[in-house]
Amino acid sequence: MPAYPTHRGPGPFKIFLSGGTSDWRDKVALRLKGYHVDLYDPFERSDQQAIMDFTSQDLSAAADSHLVLAYHDFDPLYGLSMECTAAYVAGVPIVYVSVQKRPISMVLGIARAVFADLDEAVAFIIKRFKIMTVAAAEDMAVAERHTR
Fold first, then answer.
1. pLDDT, tens digit, for every residue of 26-46?
2. DSSP secondary structure string for all residues of the chain
3. What residues in the chain have per-residue pLDDT under 70?
4. Residue 108, Cβ neighbours under 10 Å: how many?
5. Planar angle of CA 95, 8, 18, nearest 5 degrees
6. Which residue(s) pair with 98 in the sheet?
7. Domains along the chain?
8. Cβ contact 25:122 at 8 Å
């Protein structure tokens, strides 16, 4: 398995949130509060008025992220499968959380890590992808300005 990428760029670590409309996104946002991340919630950030618009926006956003966090809490989730595929083709790692008896086999096949618990998945992301806190990112930016 390839090494897990880390992000040390000037902007935040971009995480695309793929999955159903339950409250799991709020739990992720709360857990990652204080970390240097940009959570892309397609239900909030893409044009939900037109299927053609939000489909292309969501697939592009998944492919342009640093990571896709896919949460499978009910069936069927065709959008999750498509978003994960777009990310996989673009080389974006996928962390897949399934609380279903039957996970999506093809998503299992392309995910870098698989979990049955959302909190465990988020803790894994913080550790494995070396997600910085906002304060650490600000300190790093100050240090880089002083070395120029």
1. 999 999 999 999 999 988 866
2. -PPPP---SSSPEEEEEEE-SSTHHHHHHHHTTTBSEEEE-HHHHS-TT-HHHHHHHHHHHHHTSSEEEEEE-SS--HHHHHHHHHHHHTT--EEEEE-SSS--HHHHHH-SEEES-HHHHHHHHHHHTTPPBHHHHHHHHHHHHHH-
3. 1-9, 45-53, 148
4. 12
5. 25
6. 72
7. 13-147 (3.40.50.450)
8. no
